[in-house]
Amino acid sequence: MSILITGSAGFIGSALCLKLLDRGDEIIGIDNHSDYYDPAIKELRLKRHLDHKNYTHLRIDLKDQEAIKKSFLNYKPQIVVNLAAQAGVRYSIENPLAYINSNIVGFTHILEECRNHNVKHLVYASSSSVYGANTQMPFSVHHNVDHPLSLYAASKKSNELMAHTYSHLYNLPTSGLRFFTVYGPWGRPDMALFKFTKAILEGKPIDVFNHGKHKRDFTYIDDIVKGIIRVIDKPSSSNKNWDSMKPDPGTSKAPWKLFNIGRNQPVELMDYISALEKALGKKAKMNMKPLQPGDVPDTYADVDDLFKNFDYKPETTVEEGVANFVEWYLKYLKLGK
Fold first, then answer.
1. Secondary structure (H, E, C), 16-31
2. What CA–CA distances, in Å, run from 326 to 185, 205, 279?
3. pLDDT in tens, 136-164
């Protein structure tokens, strides 16, 4: 298949490109190489697949409507996977407009070109952050999510609503994926695992928010990619039993669905740190701090729909995933980064 992937130099996007290229798909990658975090790691991720005969890379921004139009006209993708976004809950408090420009305006450009070019399936990244003030666990796509706690979360919920509109008006099959705390090799330097590992190796203290009491449904990168590929290959269809008197937030009469992709096994932050200490063979020095604005105390993914529809659920344990990350990170340091 011809698949256009936005955010193709990103953590998830690059890993997805590799797997799809391995199975013989033709990939058109789009990335703006922003400096939200060190762009050097993006270049190194990209080097892994840049020269593949079935890969084409476009350095453009989703905000550039004309460039997005040209990419669809020139390459005519059958499937689109939108992973590009301004990431980060805390940064959205400092710089809200970055999220509007990338996550709302940019996503609109993708939706427009998908409907104008009869794309067979649009798969897009949402986030576990959309659950916001919800405390009913585990988080289900069938729960109402109208109380986001950050603009990042609000922008992701907006993407789900925008996609629904296009599914309804233009019969465009769309699937939204709510990722739960993705980690692993080639991860983002602004994420906890990367920052913790660097600090521990340097003998510096790590900031442990909410005094280490919150839980996260940490999900390993390979499991995320496997889930995305399962979804790509099965476009969303209408829920014929959808009841407008009792509306289901996770499905629709339109070809639109939402799925959680998470480990379904929340882990306390202190246990996550313990797994890292074990893998490094070194104890962490900790600065205990309160819960940060915009953060949620706990996340826990209900993946029943993922399993029912695709016979799949993530299985990599935190101990295994963290050990894999540390093995990669030590090699990454030798690159002089």
1. HHHHHHHCCCEEEEEC
2. 8, 18, 7
3. 999 999 999 999 998 899 999 999 999 99
The listed range with the strongest mean pLDDT (33-42, 68-77, 325-334) is 68-77
Distance CA 11, CA 188 (A): 6
Q: Are 269 and 193 in contact (CB under 8 A)?
A: no
User: 182-183 and 219-220 as β-strands: parallel, antiparallel, unpaired?
Assistant: parallel
* Dist CA 138 CA 335 (whole Å): 40
Each residue of 202-241: pLDDT tens digit? 999 999 988 888 899 999 999 999 999 999 999 999 999 9
What dihedral angle (degrees, nearest 10) is formed by the CA atoms of 237, 136, 299, 97?
70
b vs e for 204-242, b when ≥16 Cβ sit within 10 Å of the residue's Cβ? eebebbbeeebbbbbbbbbbbbbbbbbbbeebbebbeee
Residues assigned a catalytic role: 152
User: How do strand 206-208 and strand 286-288 relate by DSSP bridges?
Assistant: parallel
Transcribe 307-328 into DSSP letters.
Answer: HHHHS------HHHHHHHHHHH
Describe the crossing of helices 11-22 and 39-47 by its angle, rounded to 10 degrees.
0
CB atoms within 10 A of CB 95: 12
∠ CA 103-106-108, rounded to 5°: 100
The reported pTM is 0.95
Nearest to 142 by CA among 63, 251, 66, 242: 251
Q: Quickly tell me which residue has 């991720």 as its tokens.
A: 45
Strands (DSSP E) contained in the chain are: 2-6, 26-30, 55-58, 79-82, 121-127, 174-179, 182-183, 206-208, 215-216, 219-220, 256-261, 267-268, 286-288
Three-state DSSP state, 132 = coil
